[in-house]
Amino acid sequence: MANGSPKHHHQLEAKRKRLTWIAGVSGLCVLFYVLGAWQHSSPLTNLTQSITKADCDVSNRAAVSSNPSTSSSSVALDFDSHHQSQINNTTSVNEFPPCDMSFSEYTPCQDTQRGRKFDRNMLKYRERHCPTKDELLLCLIPAPPKYKTPFKWPQSRDYAWYDNIPHKELSIEKAVQNWIQVEGDRFRFPGGGTMFPRGADAYIDDINELIPLTDGSIRTAIDTGCGVASWGAYLLKRDIISMSFAPRDTHEAQVWFALERGVPGMIGIMASQRLPYPARAFDMAHCSRCLIPWHKYDGMYLIEVDRVLRPGGYWILSGPPIRWKKHWKGWERTQEDLKQEQDAIEDVAKRLCWKKVVEKDDLSVWQKPLNHIDCIASRKTYKTPHICKSDNPDAGWYKEMEVCITPLPEVSSSDEVAGGAVEKWPARAFAIPPRIRSGSIPGITAEKFKEDNNLWKDRVTNYKHIMSPLTKGRYRNIMDMNAQLGGFAAALAKYPVWVMNVVPANSNPDTLGVIYERGFIGTYQDWCEAVSTYPRTYDLIHAGGVFSIYQDRCDITHILLEMDRILRPEGTVIFRDTVEVLVKIQTITNGMRWKSQIMDHESGPFNPEKILVAVKTYWTGEKKRKQKE
């Protein structure tokens, strides 16, 4: 009868109630946690939407300019609930003023006034000459007063707003050659060029009759002295991406027009230093009346082209001295002079072991050998140039050119591709690159390469929730400040965008060669210095881990101001770094007319890496008022 006592029954009832209460409270905790996580993670706030709704409506954008605070999003961040003590811990913001309008087109390391102080021999004065620490600006480079969002790709290939790059010089100077025309409030690019009066498309078709441009074997190209990059622009529809470069010179804004059109380009020149690219990078190199003295300085410039060409790559030359018997009068040069120049180029090409593929009409094509087996043997005949010794062939940052042939990796047979063959495009983008396959990149295995591709696939899926649709043309020119293996560019390959993959100078390991082997383009860059580009040339900048690398090397304020210079109004920046670094960045960018939010990592709040998404608000400089006398 003891088991049925009222006291024992009361104890069981109390125990049951306590268990029910605990279960109920636990259930509510789980429910609210799930609801909270869903609420904060579902729209990883589309920060760009509130600023870019106006799109091409300049009047709406002006309203944003006058009151930037209205652009911020009202959706709370998941990050806040986990890191409340670490944010908003500064009481004042250092506001950066606009620079004077005279700096609207400022290119710090290619400043024409600073350049005049340097040696004119070999055009050294047009190379990179960056400001000293005392010369660095602490202001924001202003856009022109009537700046408009550039045309969307593919329309941008053919049109650009005059107010964005107010320079008519090329339309007058190159009028006969059909480079560029002014039509009302815009420029039109007919696709003409000095050596392709029928247009770049027809010119490329002519090249395609000589070498295969459409079977995927040629993917990366370099255009030396590119003009407005029409050659590169029309190669894109053939799935060939070209690195176009030209100096900042009397032909004002050549590369600027290229980038405004949505075509890859950099300010650059062949002078005394190597190009900022690794060895064996490009499948094809091109010069169309580029005015580079290929036959001078013991053939040093052709030797540099040889360094950056892939084994089996092509060099295409049109313009002087090719077909001099027909054009010599128009070029205002003597037949003897032109013949001598062509003979000298042919001689350098032979010494480099290049094979003359064809010369037809205005085009001449040479091909680099697949390996150096025969070339090494030929040094008995050609004493110069010799094969370089103990040199890093990929070194391309402030490295002097040399008059010696960059050696190719060793092979076991004469038909083997030195360094390894690459797949045809588009399989090339995700195939194991030869540098990884051969184990020449320390610490990077084929398995890690595959993991990196999957990682970036997930990240880009996440970014699509943050940014405007990648398919709508909102973004075209993208820069990855710390590109590593090029995974970001590969994940974006299916979208109408292109990526300038930057590998910080002196990185260990140096992965830029891997990026080129994948069929993408990029450059070396020290982020303590300015980039070789014009202001307002990129729509989206990705900065993964960059500031952890550089925060002890130089003042990150100057890196952020440089990012602001090259970012278009209403452009987006994605930072990935530790909380501490991102809070420092946000504190500075709050004074740069940027709107930003810190978010948790895709994997959740417990990952120490966080994401900061920032948008540069629309604002412009003021028109200079004429002073009354």
Automatic annotation (TrEMBL):
The keyword Glycoprotein applies. Its main location: endoplasmic reticulum. Keywords: Glycoprotein, Membrane, Methyltransferase, Signal-anchor, Transferase, Transmembrane, Transmembrane helix. InterPro entries: Put_SAM_MeTrfase (IPR004159), SAM-dependent_MTases_sf (IPR029063). It is found in: Endoplasmic reticulum membrane; Membrane. It is an enzyme of class 2 (transferase). One of its GO terms (biological process) is methylation. Signal peptide: none annotated. GO terms for cellular component: endoplasmic reticulum membrane; endosome; trans-Golgi network. Pfam families: Methyltransf_29. It is a single-pass type II membrane protein. The chain crosses the membrane at residues 21-38. One of its GO terms (molecular function) is methyltransferase activity. Its EC number is 2.1.1.-. SUPFAM superfamilies: S-adenosyl-L-methionine-dependent methyltransferases. PANTHER family: METHYLTRANSFERASE PMT18-RELATED, SAM-DEPENDENT METHYLTRANSFERASE. Belongs to the methyltransferase superfamily. This is Methyltransferase. It comes from Populus alba x Populus x berolinensis.
